[in-house]
Amino acid sequence: MNKKLKVGLLGGTGLVGQRFVTLLNNHPYFEVAAVAASKRSAGKKYYDTVKDRWKLSIPMPDYIKDIVVKDIYEIDEIAKEVDFVFCAVDMPKDEIRKIEETYAKHEIPVVSNNSAHRFTEDVPVVIPEVNPDHLKIIDKQKERLGTKKGFITAKPNCSIQSYVPALSALLEYKPTKILVCTYQAISGSGKTFKEFPEILDNVIPYIPGEEDKSEKEPLKVWGHIEDNKIVCANNPTITSQCLRVPVADGHMAAVFVSFEKKPSKEVMLEHFKNFKGKPQTLELPTAPENFLTYFEDDFRPQPKLDRELEKGMGVTIGRLREDTVFDYKFVCLSHNALRGAAGGALLTAELLYREGYLY
């Protein structure tokens, strides 16, 4: 298929929406045809709505400036203009769940950045290199929704994408228990330093909802399809703590892991080096050439130095060593706003496009 698909951005004026705007500029598969937000922004040109709230260092692309923002509830009108939508709205979870399903029932596929449907049993939660096979559940989801084209797929929580890829490279050795501490950047809360002065010279030891997501979402990603639903994996056992730290972008994770079949350090490094998935095989536009990169330097990875690796779509790993309680420990880093948010959702959409789900 050579024609670009028309995309709608639900919640296109917020921080993640702005990331979508920049990533979709001159994209080979997709072009933005509609932007929707709250009634407060509806009826105004995108530039007039966002000019004082543009949060990125990248300038606002010209193509988006004159697009008139719609109300996200103008679903009939938006459906006439788009082939699918990205959803990054900031609303109560019940409202998000309802509006995403309403779009799907209007025959508009939804690629969601939100958590509302991550535990809906027939909604795939996809890291494209890790569990692309979960997209097969979409056909069963469409049967439930009564749709021919409309469905919902979601990307997982931004913080788990710092460490789940590294652990996924080692699944054949059967991890049994994992302890993870995440150190999460302020952009994960949708804020900049100007909007979040209390984080300066500070660490906040609680991020509502994050520890539950960190402990449960990996098990869905590592699950399997059975009886028209995705069944979460039973193992490993995961416990976590999640902290907000004074970093602009980049979520770091300190990982401790034990295995049923303990691999050597050399074997683990080889698996990190060679771990690839469908996005690399298909050479998807947003896919990193090297999904996982290991640093021998004990002082790496660092958010300031390494979050932009592979255009922010790579995952970096360092400090792999044996532990006195667990088998091994190491650290991981990913760009939460790119790999963990808009970029991860875009990569999922590229995979859906190539697999024929979007047309």
From TrEMBL:
Q: Which gene encodes it?
A: asd
What is the originating organism of this protein? Clostridium pasteurianum DSM 525 = ATCC 6013
List the CDD domains: ASADH_C_arch_fung_like (cd18130), ScASADH_like_N (cd02315)
Q: What class of enzyme is it?
A: oxidoreductase
Recorded family membership: Belongs to the aspartate-semialdehyde dehydrogenase family.
**A GO term for molecular function:** protein dimerization activity
Is Methyltransferase there in the keyword field? no
Recorded protein name is Aspartate-semialdehyde dehydrogenase
Determine the domain of life of the protein's source: Bacteria
Q: What is its EC number?
A: 1.2.1.11
| UniProt domain Semialdehyde dehydrogenase NAD-binding: residue ranges | 6-138
What are the alphabetically sorted keywords of the record?
NADP, Oxidoreductase
